[in-house]
Amino acid sequence: MAHSGSCICGAVRFDITTPVTETGACHCSMCRKWSGGVYMAVAVPKGGMDITGADNISIYASSPWAERAFCKTCGSSLFYRVTAPGPMQGEMHVGLGTLADTSGIAFTGELYIDLKPESYSFAGTDRHQMTDAQVTAMFAGLGEGQP
Question: Given 8, 22, 68, 100, which is the most exposed site by the fewest CB atoms within 10 A?
Fold first, then answer.
């Protein structure tokens, strides 16, 4: 199933051209600050998304290995993109909330589970969960600080 989405004001629109079947949640402090809560996203490989209104996107280099994109007009968080060299370079993590239809997308994982605020939790536990130390080890060698 094809998925499309946009920012709040519609100045940035996109079509994901590769299959998307899973979403994950990130509980790191940057994602919480950027999204106002848990950041849920779908992974889209480099070249897997067509964007209309790209001139309305502003980019913030949030770590040595990634950047975050948002709409210049309405401020909507759009995606997190890996910039570090390696197999993940160019991969985007597009905000689940920006999609027009989330049908067929299963919730399969959580990152920084040990940093999750106590004030919320998701039902069920049948998903992959990684701690701060596990995620840091996964990104070892890509830069300094948290993704």
Answer: 100
Rounded Cα–Cα distance for residues 140 and 106 (Å)? 28
Using DSSP's 3-state secondary structure scheme, residue 28 falls into coil
Domain that holds residue 25: 3-138
Please state the rounded mean pLDDT for residues 90-101. 96
Residue spans of beta strands (DSSP E) within the chain: 3-6, 13-16, 22-26, 39-44, 49-52, 57-63, 66-71, 77-82, 92-95, 106-111, 128-129
Is 11 within the bounds of a domain?
yes
* Mean pLDDT in residue range 69-75: 97
The number of domains in the chain is: 1
